[in-house]
Amino acid sequence: MNSTSMIIALLVAGIVGAGGYSLYQAGLHKGQAMAMPGPAGATAPGDVSGTSTKIDPATGRKVLYWHDPMVPGQRFDKQGKSPFMDMELVPVYADDAGNSGGISISQGMRQNLGIRTTEVRKGKLGATVEAVGNVAYNERDIVLVQARGNGFVEKLYVRAPLDPVKKGQRLAELYVPDWVAAQEEYLSVKRMKQELGAAGLLDAARQRMRLAGMSEDQIRLVETSGRTHPRLTVTAPIDGFVTELGAREGMTVANGAQLFRINGLHTVWVNAELAENVAAQVRPGTAVQASTPALPGTVFTGKVGALLPEINAETRTIKARIELANPSGALVPGMFATVSLRPASSSEVLLVPSEAVIQTGKRSLVIVEQGDGQFKPVEVEPGAEGNGQTEIRRGLEAGQKVVASGQFLLDSEASLKGLEARMSGAAQAAASGPAPSTAAVQTHHGVGKVEAITKGEVTISHGPIPSLRWPPMTMGFKPPPAGLPDTVRVGSSVSFDIRPTEDGSYEIVRIVPDAGAAK
Asked: Is the pTM above the cut of 0.70?
C-alpha cells in the first residue's frame, strides 16, 4: 500500500469514527430514555407496535410487553435484565390493560416480595390498654390532727415530716389552761350531787367540758380519777406518714390549729395518662394491673376510680385515677408505674391485623386479594385497636383476604400512590361532574440540565427524584402543553415538575431556569 492509499484509509476511518460519535450524540439528544443502550428488542416509550403478544409460561397469561417499574415509559418485547436498574423486567399482562384500580402480581413476584395474606374475621377485640402514670397519695385516706383548745406544746414525740406513725401512737402533749376551769367546775358539782338539782348541774358541767374540746375518753378520765387533767396527749388516729408537721415544742397553739397531717398508704392512687382514642373504652370500675421498675416482678391489682373531666391540651390525654391496694406499703408517692387496663369485652366486630392497615395521612387503606394474582387497594374506616388487631367499621366484609405482610413492597412495586391519586380523582369526578384531566394528579419535582430539545420531547439529565425512587439518569419528557419558556434552552440548568400520563410516559408541567441546579 502506497502512502496515498494509507492517507485515504486514515481519512475514511476518521470520518467513520466522527460520524459514529455524531450519531451517538444525536441519539442521546433525541432522548432515548437513558444515556445507555437497552436490551435487544427495546421499543420506544408508548410504542408497542413492535411487540407481539406472548404467553407467560409461569401464569399462562398473555403478556403485552415488559418494563422496568422505575422507568415505566420504556417498554421491551422480551424478558431480561433492566438496563437501568439491577433487576428483572416485569411483565404487563393483556388482562390488566383496562384495570387501573388493581394490581397484578405473578406467583414468582409474590414469593419474592414475601406477600402474606390473612382473612378478615369477626371477633371481640378484647383490647388491653397500656398506660403510664405516677403513684400519689390517696386523698381520701388523709387525717388532719388539730388542737382542741388554746394552749401550749409541752412535748413533741414526732419531730420530722414523713416520719411513720402507727394508730394510737403519741404525737404531742399539750397544756390547755381552759380545761382546768371546766374540770374544776365539774368536780365541784359532783361533790354537791346530794343537794337539790345537782344532777342537772352535773350534766351541764359535763357539757361544758365537751365544749372546751375534751373527748369522751378524757371526760371519763376526770370522772374516774376525781382530779383535773390539764394536759392533752395527742395520738395518731390512723397508720401512715406525717406529711405535714405544724407543731414545735414550746409554741402556743390556738383552738383548731393544724398540728399534723397524716396520709395513709393502705391504698394509693396512680394517675395514668390515657390517649383520647382509648379513653372511651375505659369506665370506672375497669380492672387494672400495675407494675413499677422499682419492684420488678411484683404486680399490684386495683380498679379505675374515676376519669377526670379534663384533657391535657399539650399531650391530648385524659387522666384516669386508679386505686391500687398497697397492704405492704411498698408503693410510695412519686414512683413511676405502668398499668394495663382490661375493658369489658364488647360485641363482635370485623378484625384485621394492625399491620395490614396502611395510613396515608388522609385515608386508611388495605390491600385486598381478589384471586388469580389480583390485588386492589380498598379504603376502610378503622376503629379501636388492641393486641395487634384493628377494628374495621366500614369497607370490608368477613371472609375477604387482605395483605398482612409485604403491602408496602406492593406499594412500591405497583405505584400504589399513583393508584390512590386516580381513585381520589375518580371519586371527585363522580361527586362533582366532569373536571379537567389535569386536576388531582400527583407531580414530582427534580432538577437537572437540558441536554436536547425536539418538537415532542425535552431530554434532561437530572438528579435523584425521591418521590419516584428514581436515581440520577438522562431521559426524555413530553414538553409542557403551553410550550417551553424562552429562557429554557439546551444547556440550561433547570428546576422542573413532572406528572405521569396515560401512556406511561411523563410530561413536564413546570420548568424554570435554576442556577443552583447544576451544583
From this structure: no
